[in-house]
Amino acid sequence: MKWIKQVHYQNFSEAKGRKPSAVDGKCSWLFHQGFAPYILTSGWSTPNVKTTEWEFLRRIRIKQGVPDSAILREDKVTNTFENSRFSKHLLHQMEIKSDKETLVCKSYHARRALLTYQIHFNETAFLVKSVTDKTGITKDNWFLDDKKITPVMKELTKVGQNFGPHIPNWVRPLSYRETLATKEKF
Predict the structure, then answer these.
(1) Which residue range or ranges hold the DUF218 domain (predicted)?
(2) Domain tally for the chain?
(3) Considering the entire predicted model, what is its pTM?
(4) Residue 138 main-chain phi, psi, to 5 deg
């Protein structure tokens, strides 16, 4: 693996005085465990951070012992789709190629993040490391109360809206001959 991608889906309205999140910690931990020589962090300017999200997260990484030279810079993105597309462009410019990489994100954002990255990095296999953030949402409890259901359902809505047009590109209909050959195997 050449890089660890933090797929940031963070509410930066809390950035003033914000402590490192579970996602921040997991990225740095994976780096220190030798998963990859780079962390690709993204983020643009927001009114809640006096600098870009990228610079804010870079400072966290450095405090967590990640060398500045290992933190790749992408500071133009505004959403997950751009995050993937701009990351692909940056890695291409830097001539960093790999067929297996790691995505780190919140547990309820993992499916959409993976689908998004699979669109732009169709030649790459991803290991998804999801973390439980301060909401406490997990696969075992997301349906137990409205405060957990709401963000999960928002993610599912975005999956439907964002990926419906891509499904025909992912699944091609089998020809009649392929269908017969598949039936013969079973």
Answers:
(1) 29-120
(2) 1
(3) 0.80
(4) -135, 170
| Distance of alpha carbon 60 from alpha carbon 118, whole angstroms | 28
Is the pLDDT score of 45 beyond 90?
Answer: no
Closest CA to 126 of 137, 108, 112, 142: 112
DSSP 35-76: S-SEEEEE--EETTEEEEHHHHHHHHHHHTT--GGGEEEE--
Q: How far is CA 133 from CA 48, 74, 146, 162, in A?
A: 20, 23, 16, 24
Q: Six-digit token pair at 59?
A: 């400072």
- Where residue 172 falls among pLDDT bands split at 50, 70, 90? low
* Cβ neighbours, 10 Å, residue 135: 15
More confident residue, 92 or 19: 92
Beta partners for residue 4, in sequence order: 39, 102
Residue range(s) defining the domain that contains residue 153: 3-185
Three-state DSSP state, 131: strand
Q: What are the CA-CA distances from residue 104 to residues 28, 167, 185 (Å)?
A: 10, 24, 38
Distance of CA 147 to the CA centre of its chain: 22
